[in-house]
Amino acid sequence: MEVYTTENEQVSALKNFFVENGKAIAAGLIIGIGGIAGWNYYQSHQVSKLQDAAIAYETAITAKGTPAEQTARLQAFAKEANNNYGAIAGLDLAMKAVDSNDLPAAENALSQALTKTDNEDLKDLINARLARVQLGQKKPDAALATVAAVKGKGWAAYAQDIRGDALLQKGDVKGAQEAYTTGIQSEGAGTIKSVMTFKLDNLAG
């Protein structure tokens, strides 16, 4: 079931950012910090935890095994990692669940992922995907509540696309048209603009 089409580039970019740059960012925190030894020790400890999380995540997704073993390994990591990598693991688990047409499991994985991170871009991505999954389960009210938490300007068009789909699922054609129109006019609409234009044309026709 293709519920993630419009966000694939965003999740790849965020995932690659954390996996490839996590260690460098952590090191930069130490380089840029002066002050008392206790503060430096604390920061060093945080950097070590971040590095360990990055390595553990890479191990979880690259270790060989059967699909069931790989999923179990990722589930264990996501449960234990209370950081951005735990959230990304939740995204991975949700994707696997969607591929298996298990939307309740995907919803659960994404809901848990939200509790793992304070990164606003990552939270916006997770909420966008969660709303898509809720729409896939014919839960438009839940989707509308979830997408309302998407705040980043870069996600404005995607959020309106989701709102339009949810309102249309509720039978609110006018509301859907308004949401799609707002989305098309949003800054940085990109490829989703043509998707919403197509939907508008269909509704008008």
UniProtKB/TrEMBL annotation:
<dbReference type="Pfam" id="PF09976">
    <property type="entry name" value="TPR_21"/>
</dbReference>
<dbReference type="InterPro" id="IPR026039">
    <property type="entry name" value="YfgM"/>
</dbReference>
<keyword id="KW-0812">Transmembrane</keyword>
<keyword id="KW-1003">Cell membrane</keyword>
<dbReference type="GO" id="GO:0005886">
    <property type="term" value="C:plasma membrane"/>
</dbReference>
<dbReference type="GO" id="GO:0044877">
    <property type="term" value="F:protein-containing complex binding"/>
</dbReference>
<feature type="transmembrane region" description="Helical">
    <location>
        <begin position="24"/>
        <end position="42"/>
    </location>
</feature>
<feature type="domain" description="Ancillary SecYEG translocon subunit/Cell division coordinator CpoB TPR">
    <location>
        <begin position="15"/>
        <end position="204"/>
    </location>
</feature>
<protein>
    <recommendedName>
        <fullName>Ancillary SecYEG translocon subunit/Cell division coordinator CpoB TPR domain-containing protein</fullName>
    </recommendedName>
</protein>
<dbReference type="InterPro" id="IPR018704">
    <property type="entry name" value="SecYEG/CpoB_TPR"/>
</dbReference>
<keyword id="KW-0472">Membrane</keyword>
<keyword id="KW-0143">Chaperone</keyword>
<keyword id="KW-1133">Transmembrane helix</keyword>
